[in-house]
Design a protein that fits this description.
This protein has about 230 residues and is an alpha+beta fold. The protein folds into 2 domains: about 1-70 and about 175-225; about 75-155. Helix content is about 55%, strand content about 25%. It is built from 5 helices and 6 strands. Strands 1, 2, 3, 4, 5 and 6 form a 6-stranded antiparallel sheet that branches. Strand 3 (about 175-190) and strand 4 form a beta hairpin. Helix 4 runs antiparallel to helix 5.
Amino acid sequence: MDRKIFSIGGIILLLFVTYSCVSHPEEALLKRYFNACSLNDITTMSTMALEPIKFDFESWEIINIGEEMVEPASLPEMNQKELELKKKVEESVGITLDAKEDLDIAEFDLEKARTRAARNAARKKINEMKAKYEEQREKHNLVQKDYNEAKAAAQREEEISTFSLGRGEIPNIRDFTGEVYSKDVEVKIQGESGTKDYKISLKRYILKDEVVGMTYRGRWIILKFEDLN
């Protein structure tokens, strides 16, 4: 009877510990991070934070835990946007080169002109072609800017996703569907120079490869630190 009671008690204790770890992942993550920080263990810190920061502190505490947010994984959509803009850039390159060629031809015609009327006509054509070329070049620069931003955003999201999954490079990760969990945690850090508050952004990815039906359960990671002072 005593053994049975002991077994039940052990199971309840195990469930309680497990529930506590699952319910408060930010506490366990930050505790490990600051432990590594106190040991100046940059390698371990880098396994938990994308951009680890070394704090010189005497103590730290969590002062606020924000609401946990859940959103659909955005990488497939971001990847599609990047591909669409890449195609627009390629098309724009051709149009811009054609406009430059038209301007070059007009300038060449001016060099060949022998009469005043021909030169006047050539100059007029140059002005028209130059205006069209500059307008097209401006359009191209805007499309190129949009593409560069979309490409950088998709690369960043892929980097964060891969870091959370902790499985190294996954070639088709941009096709994965799933959910992204996020929350902000505010901490107070006491150091020799005084107290500072920081907001720490956390994320976790749970993604699925629809082709093979495999689910990847990522871990909570530290995305960034924000000084609130």
